[in-house]
Design goal:
alpha/beta; seven-stranded mixed β-sheet; 26% strand
Length: 197
């Protein structure tokens, strides 16, 4: 296994009490987080969100993306069901890192869309991978999930890794004038399921 469990603690949030579990990817050295609520027993699919770190959206309330709003909505859904898991992955900017993300934002300030900006910096449109997710879910004994996502690549990654995605739950948030082009690019260039959700 390339993902190693390190430690757990309680985390009180505005959505109630969660458990926070730290993992280390021994290949990359990256640290990832699982946020859980409730217990996972039996063969029931677990409400699940795979969320890649977005400092600007999650912590700085950026209106340029929908990341923070999606994270909040996922936590709300899990709190309402009193059971679920969020895998919070440390792969900022679709895997290009924070400083390169700022460079990509600069290119977007001058007309590039989010895909064009990443490619101009020499990266692929989306450099993320989800291999660690399978091992993190299996650590908790989770084999089946109801996945909160608009991204079909996440569904494929889990199914390929042996996790059965029995249902996809759309995670649609309110758009705004600042992320309208971003959301359109996610649909038209990255294949996200925003229009059909």
């Amino acid at each position: 296994m390339s993902v190693k469990f390190v430690a757990s603690s309680k985390l009180q949030t505005q959505f109630g009490l969660f458990e926070m579990h730290g993992f280390e990817d021994t290949r990359s050295g990256c640290e990832h987080l699982a946020l859980t609520k409730g217990s996972f027993t039996g063969d029931q699919p677990v409400l699940t969100r795979i969320h890649s770190e977005c400092l600007t959206g999650d912590a700085l309330f950026s209106l340029r993306c929908d990341c923070g709003a999606q994270l909040k909505k996922a936590m709300e859904h899990i709190a309402n069901q009193e059971c679920g898991i969020i895998l919070y992955l440390r792969q900022e900017g679709r895997g290009i890192g924070l400083i390169n993300k700022i460079k990509a934002y600069h290119l977007q300030d001058h007309g590039a869309d989010t895909v064009e900006a990443n490619e101009r910096l020499g990266f692929s449109a989306d450099s993320r991978n989800y291999e660690m997710c399978t091992e993190m879910l299996k650590y908790f004994g989770i084999r089946q999930v109801c996945l909160m996502t608009n991204n079909p690549h996440k569904i494929h990654a889990l199914n390929t890794g042996g996790i059965n995605v029995v249902k996809r739950m759309s995670l649609i948030t309110s758009g705004n004038p600042h992320n309208k082009r971003y959301l359109a690019t996610k649909t038209n260039k990255l294949g996200h399921l925003l229009e059909t959700a």
